[in-house]
Amino acid sequence: MLIAQITDMHIREPGTLAYRRVDTAAHLERCIAQVMRLDPLPEVVLVTGDLTDKGRPEEYRHLRGLLAPLTMPVYVVPGNHDERAALRSAFRDHDYLPQDGEFLHYTVDQYPLRLIGLDTVVPGRGGGMLCDERLRWLGARLAEMPERPTVIFMHHPPFKTGIAIMDFIGLADAGAFGEIVAKHPQVERILCGHLHRAIHARLWGTLASTCPGSAHQVELELRPNTAAGFVMEPPGYQLHHWNGAQLVSHTAFVGDFDGPHPFFEAGRLIE
C-alpha cells in the first residue's frame, strides 16, 4: 500500500496570496501534478490539516477545484487554520467525515493499513489538544482492532521539535495521548502536519513525523526564545509505503530538478 501525505496548503481565495507573498494555489497545483505522475500511483492521499488559510467557504471551494485532478481517495483532517463547519460543508460528499457531532475524527478500515484521522483543533487557537472525549474515542477505536496495523494522522505533532514558536502552539498534554498509544503496539506511525518541515521522533514505541508544506516552509530556527518566520525552501510531500511488515517513509520535493543521471557506464562506476 502506498500513501501520499500532503499538508499545510493554506489555500486562499482565487487571486489572493497567503501572507501577501505566497501563491499557495499554484504550489498545490504543482504538487498534485507531481503526485499524479508517480508510478505507481498512491492508493490514498492523506491531508494533515491547514487545508485553507482562513477557514472561509470560498477558500474551500477553491481548494476542491485544486484537488480535483487526484483520482484516488482523499482523506482530510482539520488544522488550526481550518474551520470545522466550513470544511464539513465543503467535503460533505466525503462520507467518511462525520456529519454530526463536534469533532471531525474517523476510521478507514478497507485498506491493509487501518487509518485513524484525529481532530486536534481548538477553535480560535493556534495550538491543539485532545480533550477527554477525543482521547476516549481514540482508545476505543484502537481497542477494537488490536491486530490491525494502524496509522494515526492528525495536524499537531505530539512532540517538541525545538522550533520554539511552533512548540508554543503544539499539542497540549501530549502525554495523555501517549499513554493511549503506548498501550497499542499496532500503531505503526503517527503522521502530522503543522510544522511545514520533515521532522521525526521516536516515542511510545512508535514513530511520529511531520511533513513538509506544499508551499512555504517554517524556518529551521533552533535558538530558544526566537520567533521563526517562513522560508521558500522547496515544497514537498511524503510517501509512506506499507510492504506488509514495515511502513517505510520517503520525503519528496516538488520541482523540476536536473537528472536522473546514471551512476554506471559500460558496466563500471563512472569516474
Summarize the structure.
With 271 residues, this protein is an alpha/beta fold.
Number of strands: 17
Architecture, according to CATH? Answer: 4-Layer Sandwich
Sheet bearing the most strands, described? 6 strands, mixed
Structural class: alpha/beta
Strand content: 15-25%
Strand order of the largest sheet: 4-5-7-9-11-10
Mean pLDDT: 97
Radius of gyration: 19 Å
Topology pattern, helix = H, strand = E: EHEHEHEEEHEHEHEEEEEEEEE
List the helices and strands and how they pair.
Blueprint: E1 2-6, H1 24-36, E2 44-48, H2 57-67, E3 74-77, H3 84-90, E4 106-108, E5 114-117, E6 128-129, H4 132-144, E7 150-153, H5 164-168, E8 171-172, H6 174-182, E9 187-192, E10 199-203, E11 206-210, E12 217-218, E13 230-231, E14 236-242, E15 247-253, E16 264-265, E17 268-269
Parallel strand pairs: 1-2, 2-3, 5-7, 6-8, 7-9, 9-11
Antiparallel strand pairs: 1-14, 4-5, 10-11, 12-13, 14-15, 16-17
Helix pairs in contact: 1-2, 2-3, 4-6
Write up what this structure looks like.
The protein has a single domain (2-256), classed as 4-Layer Sandwich (Purple Acid Phosphatase, chain A, domain 2), CATH 3.60.21.10. The chain is built from six helices and 17 strands. The protein has helices at 24-36, 57-67, 84-90, 132-144, 164-168, 174-182, and strands at residues 2-6, 44-48, 74-77, 106-108, 114-117, 128-129, 150-153, 171-172, 187-192, 199-203, 206-210, 217-218, 230-231, 236-242, 247-253, 264-265, 268-269. A hairpin with a 5-residue loop joins strand 4 and strand 5. Helix 1 packs parallel to helix 2 (57-67) and helix 2 packs across helix 3. The protein is globular and about 60 Å long. The relative contact order is 0.16.
